[in-house]
């Protein structure tokens, strides 16, 4: 009897955290799903009495052109960032394996500090760096002889703003991915690399035939996490550009927020949020299934 009671203790101890976490995660999702099927605007927010409208909100989104434009922009935004993050992180992880202890510790500390920097603080720093008159980036480019960047306004051009946001998100995301991949690299037996070198294998051949196949599940996991984090990226975009100029940086999360905040279309904003969740869930599940099969 006592042994049976003791076996339940671990579950009883973690139960409050599990229940609280499930409530905080699932209730907002459930509430957004309900609102997406209702006529829910400022009036309903104040006095209640939202009316069920079925799939009308989804039909309005899917039959319009704006949603598809934002979806395409989000896909491009996600693809560019994830490719850069995974590529740079892989290079940094491979470099850390070859560095001496002191340099490796210094690089890992720098990555950890960059990762620990609050998102809003980092975004504000990037605003200063790319400021038109006093920004460090413009000063450096002009010093290098690129006079056309004298007083250049980065945040007045959609492509330039998009590029600045890519640099910001990549800078914030690389530390986690690089440290994760480095941890995976340390688990590969050194004998495999020594055998490959004896056989005359080049660096690319060693990576393609040894490193990548062994760490394929880890690469898939890191890529999946980065897809989720980049696709749902909101604070950096909102603080830096609020989706502008001319909606050039409006992705699905920003689009949902703008609809709900500016137009007070909480029903339509919830529908965008739910479609975002469904798209990300499909992408994640398919990738994880492929990873498990391998």
Automatic annotation (TrEMBL):
The chain crosses the membrane at residues 12-30, 75-97, 109-130, 162-185, 268-288. Pfam families: BPD_transp_1. Residues 71-289 form the ABC transmembrane type-1 domain. InterPro entries: MetI-like, MetI-like_sf, UgpAE/MalFG_permease. It is found in: Cell membrane. GO terms for biological process: transmembrane transport. Keywords: Cell membrane, Membrane, Transmembrane, Transmembrane helix, Transport. It comes from the Bacteria. Belongs to the binding-protein-dependent transport system permease family. This is Sugar ABC transporter permease. The lineage of its organism: Bacteria, Bacillati, Actinomycetota, Actinomycetes, Streptosporangiales.
């Amino acid at each position: 009897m006592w042994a049976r009671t003791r076996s339940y203790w671990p579950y009883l101890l973690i139960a409050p955290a599990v229940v609280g976490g499930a409530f905080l995660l699932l209730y907002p999702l459930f509430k957004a799903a309900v609102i997406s099927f209702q006529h829910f605007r400022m009036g309903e927010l104040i006095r209640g009495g939202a009316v069920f409208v079925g799939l009308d909100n989804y039909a309005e989104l899917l039959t319009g052109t704006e949603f598809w434009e934002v979806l395409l922009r989000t896909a491009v935004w996600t693809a560019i960032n994830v490719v850069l993050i995974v590529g740079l992180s892989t290079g940094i992880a491979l470099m850390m394996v070859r560095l001496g202890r002191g340099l490796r510790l210094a690089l890992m500390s720098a990555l950890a500090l960059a990762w620990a920097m609050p998102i809003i603080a980092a975004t504000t720093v990037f605003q200063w760096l790319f400021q038109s008159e006093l920004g460090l980036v413009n000063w450096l480019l002009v010093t290098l002889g690129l006079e056309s960047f004298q007083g250049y306004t980065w945040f007045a051009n959609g492509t330039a703003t998009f590029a600045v946001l890519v640099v910001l998100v990549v800078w914030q995301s690389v530390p986690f991915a690089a440290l994760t991949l480095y941890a995976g690299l340390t688990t590969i037996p050194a004998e495999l690399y020594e055998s490959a070198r004896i056989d005359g294998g080049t660096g690319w051949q060693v990576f393609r035939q040894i490193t990548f196949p062994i760490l394929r599940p880890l690469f898939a996991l890191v890529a999946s996490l980065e897809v989720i984090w980049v696709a749902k990226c909101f604070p950096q975009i909102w603080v830096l550009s609020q989706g502008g100029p001319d909606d050039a940086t409006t992705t699905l999360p920003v689009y949902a927020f703008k609809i709900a905040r500016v137009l007070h279309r909480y029903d339509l904003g919830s529908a965008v949020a739910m479609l975002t969740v469904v798209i990300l869930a499909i992408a994640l599940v398919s990738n994880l299934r492929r990873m498990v099969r391998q």
